[in-house]
Amino acid sequence: MPSTTVVVVTWRGAEHIAECLDALAAQDRPHRILVVDNASTDGTTRLLAAHPAAPEVLRLPRNAGYAGGIAAALPRVRTPLLAWLNDDAAPGPGWLAALEDAMRPGVAAVASRLEHPDGTVQSLGVRLTADGHGADLRALPAGTDPFGFCGGAVLLRTAALRNAGGVPARFFCYYEDTDTAWRLRLAGGRVVAAPDAGQAPGTAVRHRHGASTVPGSARFHRWNERNRLLMLLRCAPAPVALRELARFAARTLVLPVRTSKPDAANFRFGLRCRVLAEVGALLPATLLARRAIGRRANVGRTEVWRTWARG
After folding, report:
1. What is the pLDDT of residue 227?
2. Listed residue (189, 10, 28) closest to 88, CA to CA
3. How far apart are CA 231 and CA 281, in angstroms?
4. Which of 309, 276, 102 is nearest to 190 (CA)?
5. What is d(CA 202, CA 51) in angstroms, rounded to the nearest whole number?
6. Structure confidence by residue, pLDDT tens digits, 102-152
7. Which fold has domain 4-207?
8. What are the extents of the domains in the chain?
9. Cα–Cα 20 to 30 A to 265, which of 95, 128, 159, 219?
């Protein structure tokens, strides 16, 4: 029996998911493929049914986003390991073997090396910044661990993920990976980067990045800003979470009177007000989740923050 179920979440992925499935079919290790189809209407369903990889398909009645798709798949995973893989990602044939070999006792997640189509590094894992952002690492000194992982391609221990509370489906997309890394570390698990991933031939993941969502768009910034605040309210020490929420609100309030400001979508007053409204609407459920995360924790929030947050 395979050790890993690879979960691929897709939404209107007909243009690129075949390449992802071809790459999975070429893996050195046996595995199970579970594709979550977020109510695609572009022919993805027919493509999945005809593909020789014969993936199991879970078709959702509506688009639940990446986080919602992974959350919907989790109850169907019966293997000890679970991989998340974007539908616009194509791993080399040794990718899964490198990650499985790095899954030693005490390790809860193994980050992949993701590369842009031109071969430059997109992510070797994720670091935690001093203001609570998750930022991709493009260099990682030998023998060191990342704080977290990019959810575009990662291997997790299934029991550790379930014990940490699963996946925050309400995030829709973005920051579900960093939130998960937070909770795995609070539970005492390690997040590592596979030592051979990307160094040995055929172990990196080529990633188109943003095939389904457009980085820099208004929706991208809305989800990004909202979910960072929700993650901090769920996982970070209370003073840190409240500080960052207050900073976001204060910067929003002064935007209308600023004479100059960046042209990026996340500096639009209306978008930031919507973020604050959504955080407010989700606050009761978020605080309940925070309490549950705290009950499961084996490591203090402050200890995790002091160990990993960097400028």
Report:
1. 98
2. 10
3. 15
4. 102
5. 23
6. 999 999 999 999 999 999 999 999 999 999 999 999 999 988 999 999 999
7. Spore Coat Polysaccharide Biosynthesis Protein SpsA; Chain A (3.90.550)
8. 4-207, 218-297
9. 128
Q: Residue 268 burial (CB < 10 Å; 0-12/13-18/19+)?
A: middle
How high does pLDDT run on average in the chain? 95
User: What is the percent of the chain where pLDDT is above 90?
Assistant: 90
User: Which band of pLDDT confidence, cut at 50, 70 and 90, is reported for residue 49?
Assistant: very high
The secondary structure of the chain as a DSSP string is --SEEEEEEESS-TTTHHHHHHHHHT-SS--EEEEEE-S--SSHHHHHHH-TT--EEEE-SS--HHHHHHHHHGGG--SSEEEEEETTEEE-TTHHHHHHHT--TTEEEEE--EE-TTS-EEES-EEEETTS-EEE-S---TT---SB--TTEEEEEHHHHHHTT---GGG-SSSHHHHHHHHHHHTT-EEEE-TTTTTSTT-SEEE---SSS-TTSHHHHHHHHHHHHHHHHHHS-HHHHHHHHHHHHHHHHHGGG-S----SGGG-HHHHHHHHHHHHHHHHHHHHHHHHHHHH-SS-HHHHHHHHEE-
Q: How far apart are CA 154 and CA 207, in angstroms?
A: 13
Integer angstrom CA distances of residue 18 from 56, 92, 175, 263, 307:
14, 15, 26, 37, 41
pLDDT digits (tens, 9 = 90+) for 212-235: 667 779 999 999 999 999 999 999
Using alpha carbons, select from 57, 88, 234 the residue that is nearest to residue 151.
Answer: 88
Q: Would the pTM count as exceeding 0.70?
A: yes
